[in-house]
Amino acid sequence: MSASSKPVAQTWFGPITAVQRRAMFALVPVAVAFGLVVGLAFLPLTSAFGGLAKVGSETVLELPDELVLPPAPESSTLYASDGKTVIATFGDQYRVQLEFDQIPESVVNALVATEDSNFFEHNGVDPEGVMRALVTNLADGGTSEGASTITMQYVRQVLSYTATTPEEVAAASEVTIDRKVKEMGYALALEEEMTKHEILTNYLNTVYFGNGAYGIGAAAQVYYGKVPADLTTAESAMLVGLIQSPSNYDPINGSSEAAQVRRDHVINRMVDVGFLTGAEGDEAKAEGLNLNPQDANNTMGGAIDSDYGFFVDYFEQWWNQQEDFGDSEEVRKARLYRGGYQIVSTLDVDLQDAAQEAVERQKEMGSEYALGSVVVEPGTGGIQVMAVNRIYSNDTSENGPNTSNPEYKGSYPSTTNPLLSGNSAVPGYQAGSSFKMFTMLAALEEGLPLDTTIYSPYQYTSKYVVGDGAASCGDYWCPKNASKSEQGDYNMWTGFGESVNTYFVQLAERIGVEKSINVAERLGIKFRSQEDLNLVTNSPETYGPFVLGVTQTTPLDMAAAYAALPADGVYCPPIPASSATTLTGETIPFESACDQAVSVEVARAAVDAARCPTEYGAAAGNCTWGTAPQVGNAVDGPVAGKTGTTDSNSTNWFVGFTPNAAAAAFIADPDSPQNLVGKGNLGKPANAVAEILAAQWDMNGEGDFTPPTELVH
């Protein structure tokens, strides 16, 4: 093939010219002495001297022979657990490719003045900047000065975009002598073959400006609805000011004040360097931000476009917290949307579809009451199901109630609120008696056996001081059982099966409620409500109502907590993905950080008691009757669990499990907790879980519960 007929290679910012190719594939030798200076200039004093020998003997000699240019950005694909069914794609492609003559002088001047005032004088590395950094860093023993030129920033940008594995991500941005020397070597090589205008053009076409805008062409449109040629000096300065930290200076979704302060700093630098007169600078700073935000139209796929939106949304939030994929959420998200990963999730689409049908059979789509369920796999933490009677969508225009308020963004029929997994804005829902499991586990840990018998009256005056209130006798908390017929001698089998409140309150008094809280925390229960957090942190030993589930939690937390029981006490934090394959074919496995939260025998004893509510029957003891017999009747295999009902029926729960799946379901009004679910909705979470676990057992009916050999009598 002749040279003229070779296909043109592509980068993320357009075709690679012959000049660019030679530049990026050639490196100028870097002297040992230069490495020594760099080491002193860019690392704290204490670490610089320790690393100099390595720089001199290894780093300079080991610079690679070529710099691999990144491919065009590719969207990432999220598959179901079968590795075949596509459930979401993530991608952004919003770039406006510009030639140098399409970039206004005000943008170039703002960039040079702020980031690299000697850009047109140096050859890729600014000796004056290096020495200034050396003096400053030697003085304060830190790294307050970096001396990165625009060319070096561009090199770092390319290396970061190229990175696909966590190790490559770290190498592209680590603060080491080795990385700085390599970065400078590439910068020197680039400036040998590329013009200053080419470097500026490539840099300004690729750098991220926030809000989905990559490159100055996209940024001008997203922030001002303009082409770059129409930007004013003040607007150019504002956009260039974003480069240092798009999130900190974001004027659309963040702080317009911070953005203006940063813009004025850029304008002042333009005056200092001589690109503007003092009067021109004052005139530019007198302008308002004058934003005209536009949709970047760069999102392709994601949760909004998926039939499994709540799961996909949770996956994306989880991905954004994985530090191995970047040192900020912004970088991690960019890598997901542009890295071309092939990701296998834990979602079982067949079980998810069955669960969605089960949920909607119990409570129709669009009801004011949210009914949702999560399924977690014991022993792995894999999230197999996230189903709720809501549409994952930003279109909440027809939501109700309170539709008289045009700003109302409730949760039905559409929402993007994480109703199943929670966040700081969605702390969850009171879980009621399903929390009794944590007290039973704590009691078993303290050596109390399953046949621990306590006389439990209809109403019991506890030792916990709560002051005046509906559930107090004098100043003391005095809870009641569900009916006056519930009184007498109970043990853990019968007390758990019939959900006897006064039995578990007395059990907590014997061991200390703080131990119940500790077990819940070990099993992954998070306290998202500030009130709950204050109580469990500051006065756990007096927080008696915790035993009966007044704390807010989520189906995801509860399913993962109960999943530890059939896993012989091993708790696995929930995880939505099993692996990701990079563009280069490397597979990165994901595994939950599982931990032996409770002992094997404690878990097996708790499972035995938990068989009573479903009327599956205990192996080591005798049950009486259960609060959720429909679960045992529906599942053609071993099944256990616990109902949960709160005072006045504000919420209702069921958490159940087979040997290989744990499911939690709730019903509540997430927009108005005072809108009680009422008796007519009680039992619907248990009905939904019964169907879900029955379907799961039909698909994967394996395993059995191992009876306890200790902690029985």
TrEMBL record:
Segments forming domain Penicillin-binding protein transpeptidase: 374-687
Transmembrane segments: 23-45
Domain of life: Bacteria
Residues of the Glycosyl transferase family domain: 85-270
The name this protein goes by in its record: Transglycosylase domain-containing protein
Keyword DNA damage: no
Catalytic reactions of this protein: Preferential cleavage: (Ac)2-L-Lys-D-Ala-|-D-Ala. Also transpeptidation of peptidyl-alanyl moieties that are N-acyl substituents of D-alanine; [GlcNAc-(1->4)-Mur2Ac(oyl-L-Ala-gamma-D-Glu-L-Lys-D-Ala-D-Ala)](n)-di-trans,octa-cis-undecaprenyl diphosphate + beta-D-GlcNAc-(1->4)-Mur2Ac(oyl-L-Ala-gamma-D-Glu-L-Lys-D-Ala-D-Ala)-di-trans,octa-cis-undecaprenyl diphosphate = [GlcNAc-(1->4)-Mur2Ac(oyl-L-Ala-gamma-D-Glu-L-Lys-D-Ala-D-Ala)](n+1)-di-trans,octa-cis-undecaprenyl diphosphate + di-trans,octa-cis-undecaprenyl diphosphate + H(+)
SUPFAM superfamilies tied to this protein: beta-lactamase/transpeptidase-like, Lysozyme-like
Keywords annotated in UniProt: Carboxypeptidase, Glycosyltransferase, Hydrolase, Membrane, Multifunctional enzyme, Protease, Transferase, Transmembrane, Transmembrane helix
Lineage: Bacteria, Bacillati, Actinomycetota, Actinomycetes, Glycomycetales
